[in-house]
Design a protein that fits this description.
Blueprint lengths: L1 H12 L12 E7 L7 E7 L5 H7 L4 E4 L2 E8 L19 E8 L5 E2 L13 E8 L70 H25 L3 H31 L1
Parallel strand pairs: 1-7
Antiparallel strand pairs: 1-2, 3-4, 5-6, 5-7
Helix pairs in contact: 3-4
Keywords: Membrane, Signal, Transmembrane, Transmembrane helix
C-alpha cells in the first residue's frame, strides 16, 4: 500500500502542468525537472505576484525552504526527495534549484536575489532548473499576441429604392379670349356714292332712283339694328329716297319737254 501511495505521489509530482503561459495575463513560471529525470512544466501566476515564491505557488507549484537557510528553496513539488536532500542546510552546488528571470520571449538571466524577496513584474517569465546551475531547458515563452480586432459583421448591401421620376407638370389648358368689338352706337351716314346723282338719261336716272331705294332701305335697317337711334336714320333714309325719286321725276320731265320742243 505504501508503495502504491509513493508511486501516485511520484506521478502527481511529475504530472505536466497545463501550458497556460501562451495566454498568461500575469507571470509565467517554468520549472525544469530534467536534472531529476523529468521534463519541463509551465504555469501561470495571474496578475502581479508579491514575490517569486508567491508566483511559484500561484502557478501551481509547491515548495519547501531549507530549515536552517531561511528563504532558500530546496524542494519544488517534493523534488528532490528526502533521500537526496534533507533540506536542512543549503543544497549542494551541483544539485540545487537555480532561479532565473526573463522578459517574455527574451533570454534567461540568473537571479542575484532570492525568490522570497524578488518581486517579478507582470508579463515576465520566472524559471527554475534543478542541477549545477543550468538555465531552464526551454526558451522563455513569448508574450501572448494581442487579440485581433473584431471585424464588424458585414452588412448586406442596402437596396436603394428606384428613383421616382418627378410627375410631369400639367399645363393648364390655353384659354382663348375673344374680344368682340362693341357695336357702334352711332352709325355712319351713307356716303355720297350711295345717293345716285341725276343721270343725263331720263329712263336710266329713274331706274337708278328705283334701284337705290331698296339698298338705302336695307342700309337703314342694318343701321337701325346696330344703333339704338335707328328710327332717326330710317326717317333720314326715307327722306333721301323721296328726294331722289322727286329729282328723278323732274329730270325725266325736263328731258321729255326738251325733246318735244
Amino acid at each position: 500500500m505504501r508503495r502504491l501511495f509513493f508511486a501516485l505521489a511520484l506521478v502527481i509530482a511529475f504530472a505536466p502542468v497545463p501550458a497556460r503561459a501562451a495566454g498568461c495575463d500575469g507571470v509565467t513560471v517554468v520549472v525544469d525537472y530534467r536534472g531529476l529525470g523529468g521534463g519541463v512544466q509551465q504555469g501561470c501566476a495571474p496578475g502581479s505576484p508579491a514575490s517569486g515564491t508567491a508566483a511559484l505557488t500561484a502557478a501551481g507549484f509547491g515548495y519547501t525552504y531549507a530549515s536552517r537557510q531561511a528563504g532558500f528553496v530546496c524542494r519544488i513539488n517534493g523534488r528532490p526527495g528526502t533521500d537526496a536532500d534533507k533540506c536542512v542546510n543549503a543544497s549542494p552546488a551541483t544539485a540545487y534549484w537555480s532561479y532565473w528571470h526573463a522578459p517574455a520571449g527574451g533570454s534567461w538571466t540568473y537571479s542575484n536575489q532570492g525568490a522570497a524577496t524578488y518581486v517579478p513584474a507582470r508579463g515576465t517569465v520566472q524559471g527554475w532548473a534543478f542541477g549545477a546551475g543550468e538555465q531552464p531547458g526551454i526558451a522563455p515563452p513569448a508574450a501572448p499576441a494581442p487579440p485581433a480586432p473584431q471585424q464588424p459583421p458585414a452588412q448586406p448591401p442596402v437596396q436603394q429604392p428606384p428613383a421616382q421620376q418627378p410627375p410631369g407638370q400639367q399645363q393648364p389648358p390655353a384659354v382663348t379670349t375673344t374680344t368682340t368689338a362693341p357695336a357702334s352706337s352711332t352709325a355712319a351716314p351713307p356716303s355720297s356714292s350711295e345717293s345716285a346723282a341725276p343721270s343725263s338719261s331720263g329712263p336710266s336716272s329713274s331706274a337708278a332712283g328705283q334701284t337705290s331705294a331698296p339698298a338705302v332701305a336695307e342700309k337703314s335697317r342694318q343701321v337701325q339694328e346696330k344703333s339704338g337711334t335707328g328710327w332717326l336714320w330710317t326717317l333720314l333714309g326715307v327722306l333721301v329716297i323721296a328726294a331722289l325719286v322727286v329729282a328723278g321725276v323732274l329730270v325725266a320731265r325736263r328731258r321729255r319737254a326738251a325733246e318735244e320742243e
